[in-house]
Amino acid sequence: MQKAILILLTLFALNASAQDVEKWNLQKCVDYALEHNTSVQQGELQGEILSNNLRQAKLGRVPTLNGSGNHNYNIGRTIDPFTNTFSTTTIQSNSFSLSSGVLLYGGSQVNNSIKQSQKATEANKQSIEVVRNQIALSVATTYLQIIQSEENLSIAESQLEITKNQLDRALKLVQSGSVNQSTSLNLKAQLANDRVNVINAQNSIQLGYNALINLMQFPLDQNFEIERNINTQTPTLPSESVATLYEMALENLPEIKQAELQITQSQLGEKVAAGGLQPSLSAYGNINTVYSQSGKEINTTGQYDLVPIGYTKTSLEPVLQPQPITEIKDKAFGNQISDNLGQQVGISLSVPVFNGYRNKTAFENAKLNTKIFELALDNTKNQLRNDITTAYTKLKAAKSRYDASKLSEEAQKLNFEFSQKRFDAGMMNGVDLLTAKNQWSQSLTQMLNAKYEYIFRALIIEFYKGNKLSL
């Protein structure tokens, strides 16, 4: 008794946990996939690099400022940096400098480099949008396939239930002698086949979930279930022509914007390369100073010595003159730094004369790159036109197939219902009944497949129109 209660509680807990699983709608699945997709993350990191490059390009307008300091040991016969004379004494010295420079004119290379970096950043954003659209479309397609598989499962289960009921009737009719045993045997075989169809439909659902989980990078150890109550009504054909759809796609799709930005970026690269063929003018300035261990200074002590400077003519007595007493000592570090301070300012003009045709080659290659990107834009437009034409044609074909399969399903259903009544009345054998049932089951599957193909094709057209993917 306790064991039975424990089993019931366990089943109740499992059922409660299953009911607590949050249902994921299409938008939530797409958002999760975009947030966790590694390709999107790589594109965003590349965008940060391009933002850094843009900031660096803007700083090209700002003057540079660099400081340096050296500590030296002069050993042997070397020039004393303080006295600028030869010395054989080991001398320690320090030198310090602070320099600055700014480009006044460089063929507008700085301005064009800034613009080029801006276009590269914008092109990368469009590249990320391309990836995001591809992921969103893949998620929507897989999401739709799961729903289609679930409806296939419902059809398979309903067909299985119908076969079970038919088998029950057949067994009763066999017992009464109304039909022979072959009818019940055929229905048993059909029952087994219907069970296989149920299993295949279940497997198809699981495979769809596996694909969706992989697209979303969803953890495998967490429960996941999509929302089934969605609007799967058949859409209507678009009112726009193929040409109009193509023009709308040119305006909306990031592939086109990316290709156009790449052309602009390359054209700015031409201007940057052309600037390398022009003279450049720069201003510079620096401050420097030096300290040497040999630096000395002379100081007076305040005392005087009487030094003879001559003699009198008559008495030849020495003539004395007071002379201040001095002392020589090492000059302080701070005093040397201030006393040896020097400044320099100037303007530098650089004219490219011959450098192995490097600048000329860079300019020619930049022009060729622009032509390559222009051809890439043409290829993108041609591919887009082909895709839209194909998608529109497939949409109309899917609509026709759905309409035809819907009429076929209605007819096959009526035929099965009529056959069922004839079988119950003993006017039809079991083989003909199974044939009618299988034809109806096949038409149901065909109609369902045609319906979801039509929904999918309509979804593609909405994508080209720039509308948000939704079900």
Care to describe what's here?
The structure is a single chain. A hairpin with a 6-residue loop joins strand 3 and strand 4 (86-87). The protein has helices spanning 2-19, 26-36, 38-58, 109-176, 181-216, 242-252, 254-275, 333-339, 358-424, 430-464, and strands at 23-24, 64-74, 78-79, 86-87, 91-105, 225-226, 280-292, 296-311, 318-330, 342-350. It has a domain at 25-62 and 106-278 and 355-464: Outer membrane efflux proteins (OEP) (Up-down Bundle), CATH 1.20.1600.10. With 471 residues, the protein is of the alpha+beta class. It contains ten helices and ten strands. The longest helix is centred in the N-terminal third of the chain and has 68 residues, at 109-176. It starts with a helix and ends in a 7-residue tail after the last helix.
- CATH H-level name of the domain at 25-62 and 106-278 and 355-464... which superfamily? Outer membrane efflux proteins (OEP)
Biggest sheet character: 4 strands, antiparallel
The separation of the N and C termini measures 49 Å
What string, H for helix and E for strand, traces the elements in order? HEHHEEEEHHEHHEEEHEHH
Keywords:
single chain; 471 residues; alpha+beta; Outer membrane efflux proteins (OEP); 4-stranded antiparallel sheet; two-stranded parallel ribbon; 10 helices; elongated; disordered N terminus
Concise overview:
By secondary structure, this protein is of the alpha+beta class. It has helices at 2-19, 26-36, 38-58, 109-176, 181-216, 242-252, 254-275, 333-339, 358-424, 430-464, and strands at residues 23-24, 64-74, 78-79, 86-87, 91-105, 225-226, 280-292, 296-311, 318-330, 342-350. Mean pLDDT is 85; it is low at 1-19.
